[in-house]
Automatic annotation (TrEMBL):
PANTHER family found in the cross-reference section: 3-OXOACYL-[ACYL-CARRIER-PROTEIN] REDUCTASE, SHORT-CHAIN DEHYDROGENASES/REDUCTASES FAMILY MEMBER
Keyword Oxidoreductase: yes
Keywords assigned by UniProt, alphabetized: Oxidoreductase
Record family assignment: Belongs to the short-chain dehydrogenases/reductases (SDR) family.
Domain Ketoreductase per the UniProt entry, residue ranges: 7-190
NCBIfam families named in the record: PRK12826.1-2
EC number assigned by the record: 1.1.1.100
Taxonomic placement: Bacteria, Pseudomonadati, Pseudomonadota, Gammaproteobacteria, Aeromonadales
Primary enzyme class: oxidoreductase
Entry protein name: 3-oxoacyl-ACP reductase FabG
SMART domains: PKS_KR
GO molecular function: 3-oxoacyl-[acyl-carrier-protein] reductase (NADPH) activity
Entries under PROSITE patterns matching the protein: ADH_SHORT
Length: 246
């Protein structure tokens, strides 16, 4: 499909994993330009070479100065932004009794405040032409919780609540700015490779479709929500989890 033709996109946490796949999918769908942003873009050196419509940006989603610079750059290069994918995220898992305040703070800082700051910085580029699609990557942990992830669950649940507010706030005055979340289940990436095999096996047994998801399964959901095909969808959470949470 060429669903992204004419569109300018920003993806955070884009160097590897889901963010990489999302960036590639938007680029392959004909996006005019994808700004692929990550705190560390070095893992992206190889795949970036395959695209002439992807620009690498080293950016920490918690750094307001860097975000303001990105806004200025996109304004001067494109005059607009159509799609923002808030994908950057981290985990610092521990059971409630042993989770440190530092674990809590760093996860909330990147996963929740980072989404707030990035969206705030990019919004004027959408408001300018009164349209856009904001897609934030939450998690089924943000809707249903998980053992050892108090910080992560709170951050991902916060993203959902914030998104529903944005769906209302950003559509005022006839603006066509939509905001949605994707809640992935367990997807095959570096993040889940850190999970012990024994835990993964147990988990897989609980997934109706019988296997972990692939990054492309998430990227196709992002492409849909980003495109005109989803023009009447806002404030929603799309679970992509092989039926795990039912
Ligand atoms: P990953 O760890 O492979 O990739 C995350 C990327 O984000 C990395 O490249 C990292 O450098 C970048 N990043 C981290 N902190 C950053 C910051 N402050 N600023 C900018 N970039 C930063 O993870 P993934 O599996 O690809 O996950 C991507 C998103 O999907 C995350 O938000 C994660 O919580 C969510 N998610 C993943 C799964 C899964 O099963 N993999 C499930 C549910 C939700």
């Amino acid at each position: 499909t060429q669903d992204m033709q004419g569109n300018v996109c920003v993806v955070t946490g884009a160097a590897r994993g889901l963010g990489r796949c999302i960036s590639e999918t938007l680029a392959q769908a004909g996006a005019n330009r994808v700004y692929a942003c990550d705190i560390d873009m070095t893992p992206a050196e190889n795949w970036l070479r395959e695209y002439d419509n992807v620009t690498a940006v080293t950016l920490n989603v918690c750094d307001k100065t860097a975000l303001a610079r990105l806004n200025e750059r996109i304004y001067s290069e494109q005059r607009r932004l159509d799609v923002l994918v808030n994908n950057a995220g981290i985990t610092r898992d521990a059971l409630l009794g042993s989770m440190t305040e530092a674990d809590w703070n760093s996860v909330l800082e990147v996963n929740l405040k980072g989404v707030f700051l990035t969206t705030q910085a990019m919004l004027p580029l959408m408001q300018q032409h009164q349209s856009g699609s904001i897609i934030s990557i939450s998690s089924i942990v943000g809707t249903d919780g998980n053992i050892g992830q108090s910080n992560y669950a709170a951050s991902k649940g916060g993203i959902i609540a914030m998104t529903k507010g944005w769906a209302k706030e950003l559509a005022r005055g006839g603006a066509n700015i939509r905001a949605n979340c994707i809640a992935p289940g367990f997807i095959n990436t570096e993040m889940t490779q850190a999970v012990p095999q024994k835990v993964l096996d147990k988990l897989t047994a609980r997934i109706p479709l019988g296997h972990l998801g692939e990054p492309a399964d998430i990227a196709q959901g992002v492409l849909f929500l980003a495109s005109e095909r989803a023009r009447y969808i806002t404030g929603q959470v799309l679970k992509i989890d092989g039926g795990l949470v039912l």
